[in-house]
């Protein structure tokens, strides 16, 4: 991944969130849908995610996503995952269901702000719960 673009998108995540610029950027890896079904969705084939932060310094994006195309909607998914990276390195909570839902709401909120600031009206809902 283009390091300059990663720095730009991280600066958006920092600017739109309460977090400071990290000393180290996360690793970005592109993976096929099957990886997300197995790793992030625990085998649930109905799970439809395009990005996942593993709470261990790696952001995964679905392999067809090309953030270097300057597509702000696609870039917003990376901004969302970068927020999860910032939450993780700032020790933002834990793994309780309540905290997972709070972290997702915050990441979607910042993703929506990124889209609005780039002239795109988002259609992302945060009324769902990610764990129960």
Compact overview of the structure:
The chain has 132 residues and is mainly α. Helices cover 45% and strands 10% of the residues.
| Element order: H for helix, E for strand | HEHEEHH
Tell me, rounded to a whole number, the average pLDDT: 89
Q: Quaternary arrangement of the chains shown?
A: single chain
Name the poorly predicted regions.
none
- Biggest sheet overview: 3 strands, mixed
Look at the helices and sheets and give the structural class: mainly alpha
Radius of gyration over all CA atoms, rounded: 14 Å
Number of helices: 4
Kindly give the count of domains: 1
- Give the tally of β-strands: 3
Adjacency order of strands in the biggest sheet? 1-3-2
Q: Report strand %.
A: 5-15%
What does the overall shape look like? globular
| End-to-end Cα distance | 35 Å
| Helix fraction by DSSP (H/I, runs of at least 4) | 40-55%
List keywords for this structure.
3-stranded mixed sheet; 132 residues; mainly alpha; 4 helices
Note down, in words, how this protein is organized.
- This protein has 132 residues and is mostly helical.
- The chain has helices at residues 3-15, 33-39, 72-89, 97-117, and strands at 27-31, 51-53, 58-62.
- It has one domain.
- It contains 4 helices and 3 strands, in the order H-E-H-E-E-H-H.
- It is globular, with a radius of gyration of 14 Å.
Topology record:
Blueprint: H1 3-15, E1 27-31, H2 33-39, E2 51-53, E3 58-62, H3 72-89, H4 97-117
Parallel strand pairs: 1-3
Antiparallel strand pairs: 2-3
Helix pairs in contact: 1-3, 3-4
């Amino acid at each position: 991944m283009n390091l300059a673009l990663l720095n730009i998108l991280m600066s958006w995540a920092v600017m739109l969130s309460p977090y400071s610029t990290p000393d180290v950027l996360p690793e970005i890896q592109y993976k096929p849908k099957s990886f997300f079904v197995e790793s992030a969705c625990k085998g649930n084939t109905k799970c439809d995610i395009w990005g996942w932060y593993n709470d261990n310094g790696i952001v995964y994006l679905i392999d067809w996503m090309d953030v270097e195309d300057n597509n702000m909607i696609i870039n917003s998914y990376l901004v969302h995952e970068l927020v999860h990276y910032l939450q993780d390195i700032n020790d933002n909570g834990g793994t309780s269901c309540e905290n997972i839902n709070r972290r997702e709401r915050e990441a979607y909120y910042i993703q929506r702000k990124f889209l609005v600031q780039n002239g795109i009206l988002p259609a992302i809902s945060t009324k769902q719960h990610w764990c129960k």
